[in-house]
Amino acid sequence: MTAPVGPSGQQTDLYKVFYQCQLGKDDLQRLFAITREGITASDVRFSTIAGTTRFWKDDLHDLISSVSDSAPEIEGQWANLTLEVASHERGAKISIDLERIVVNIFGSDSTWPHGQMARTERFLVSRGAVFSSPRYENAITYLSMAFFLGLGCFFLIHGIDDEPVAECLRQARNAKRDARIFNFLILFVFAFGIIVPFYQIMKRRSLRARFSVSENFATGSWWSRMPTSERIATVGIPIAALATLAALVTAGNDLWGK
């Protein structure tokens, strides 16, 4: 590709990374149309790597046809796609994979790159893009789940051989109100440690980065983006887990409280 060269030998070079974006075939066409606006007499190249083979064309439809003919095994499930477009004074490169989108816009003047980056960013954000990797938030979710599960287990098993706790359990057994409160607290800790992270995992799954050259994706809230089967699981699994937890906590309290 030809890099733009300004009269003074300088250029404005903007670079941003977006995560958690979902782009269907129509979204890709819109994104690339936005990127190419203002670049005249340009060199254009669309490319992708399938296995160990790199494919490239100057038109996205031609690239899709070429990959479909030469690598039918991927069946439209592409792992990456890159657009490179440049003229003598302006250019852009967008690299898309299954985790992030990297946008690089450059030009000999500062107005056009900043304007194009703002338009590109606005479009990607409307398709779910965020500016930080969700991996950190996922780690916090898993740590939270482990902490509350561990705390719940501690409440259940600690004190089997501990005199003061055993005495508390005996008192709780003789006072229904205290027993209900004790069971509720244990159930709450377990539920918080399982259900909240579960919902977070399902939410992250529905908002995960995706792109497709052959189909479109639903837009809107994370719930509206989930397929029907996952919606049923998101509601049904926590209800079943709560019922199971309630039975286990009650049984454990009755057993250890005797």
Walk me through what this model shows.
The chain is an alpha+beta fold and 258 residues long. Helix content is 53%, strand content 19%. The protein has helices spanning 25-36, 60-70, 111-126, 135-157, 163-174, 176-206, 222-225, 228-256; strands at residues 12-19, 22-23, 43-50, 53-57, 80-86, 90-97, 100-107, 210-211. Strands 1-7-6-5-3-4 form a six-stranded antiparallel sheet, with helices on one face. The chain has a two-stranded parallel sheet with strand order 2-8. A hairpin with a 2-residue loop joins strand 3 and strand 4. Helix 4 runs antiparallel to helix 6 (176-206). It is elongated and about 75 Å long. It starts with 11 loop residues before the first strand and ends with a helix. 20% of the residues are buried. The mean pLDDT is 77.
Strand line-up across the major sheet: 1-7-6-5-3-4
Please compute the radius of gyration using only Cα atoms: 27 Å
Mean pLDDT: 77
Number of strands: 8
From the structure above, extract its key features.
single chain, alpha+beta, six-stranded antiparallel sheet, two-stranded parallel ribbon
List the helices and strands and how they pair.
Layout (H helix, E strand, L loop, with lengths): L11 E8 L2 E2 L1 H12 L6 E8 L2 E5 L2 H11 L9 E7 L3 E8 L2 E8 L3 H16 L8 H23 L5 H12 L1 H31 L3 E2 L10 H4 L2 H29 L2
Parallel strand pairs: 2-8
Antiparallel strand pairs: 1-7, 3-4, 3-5, 5-6, 6-7
Helix pairs in contact: 4-6, 5-6, 6-8
Give a nutshell description of this structure:
With 258 residues, the chain is α+β, with helices and mostly antiparallel strands. It is built from eight helices and eight strands; from the N terminus they run E-E-H-E-E-H-E-E-E-H-H-H-H-E-H-H.
